[in-house]
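Database export, one record per block. Field names are fixed; values are copied verbatim from the stored entry.
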Amino acid sequence: MEWEDAPSHVCRGGDKRALAFCCPPVKPCPILHALEDSNRTPQEYIKIKEEFGKKTALGQGEGTCFGSLVWCCKPSKPCPLRDMVMRRIDMSTDQYMKLKKELSEELVGKDDYSDEESIKALSDTFNVSEGEASNILKECGNDLRTAMKVLRMKNLE
């Protein structure tokens, strides 16, 4: 896959890099916090995604929820509308993820993400070393919510 450490969706606890997989901010949801973390207004976010769509294949997507693949989620989340468009334009999952990573970099920068805060929070919350928290987070594909579930289960043992 073109984006090995792609974060979970923002609404599932993913970091701000996952803004590449978010819908337009049309209702109160975690996207607003991710936008705040990335120092972006909703209007800037929309403009960046729309401009990215104009210059890449992610701008296609007639028949998707918001009319463009720039607003579509990760391939790990089933979506027949996104998948239908990808088949129609002959876009592979790798190509899709490569473009989504590029979009994420336009939204939040290339080196802007650090999972140190998540590791520290997991370590403090579940009383494990930062090394163990880091390993579990990596094993969970940087999905903070899944890492929390794993650590919760370990605490129950």
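Remark 1: The helical segments are 31-37, 42-55, 80-88, 93-108, 116-126, 130-139, 144-156.
Remark 2: The first helix runs from residue 31 to 37.
End of record.
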